[in-house]
């Protein structure tokens, strides 16, 4: 029986930029079972760890609002939830620091002020229908989209999806949001609006910028997501077909590599420099070649 493909909406952007990096991150068991090696897990970048912390504080805030009938609870409680989430993730995964966030003390200061700014933005002003609730839907035969939306807000007449993003720069996330729309429709809700709440991560020597609310065309995003899902499913199926046929072309080549991708580096990709992706493996020098 063919194994279902389970896709996280947030991973579709990775597939679009480099399918082989996507496979190395999200199909590790199958890749290794096919005889390929992958690099061992590396520490998670501090940007992702802070993003997790801010999401935890935001989710706590909305959960309190639902529980208390509109009251957000205290800043201190939400911040502590975020700090604890940060500590747990760093203990489990390590942390790859950068020049904006160079140590745990700096990270915690950033988490506190980012959480506080988020709580005073319109992102926290609506009426939450659900927060951080994982939903799944079969969006095509054999492919399950499994997503955990930051918040679904009640609307008139349609629900709205709000997603918080943090980082040093804003990136395009339409593929993720379009898949969220598909999942929500499968569960009986009509997503009439999609809003990304972007919260910049900046040096603590600078003032924390406010949340930027960006409206996303949910219909166009769903159309783009559908095309990406179709391409992903076809690629995974081709990889599996090649694995089952010893006379076929190399299975890893079913996943197109993109060496020009900005995240094509050992720091970001477990396929980099391995036999699963030889795009950066140099040929051995000949005996008479000068170093």
Automatic annotation (TrEMBL):
Domain of life: Bacteria
Pfam families: PDDEXK_1
PD-(D/E)XK endonuclease-like domain span: 9-271
InterPro entries on file: PDDEXK_AddAB-type
Name of this protein: PD-(D/E)XK nuclease family protein
Protein's organism: Falsiroseomonas tokyonensis
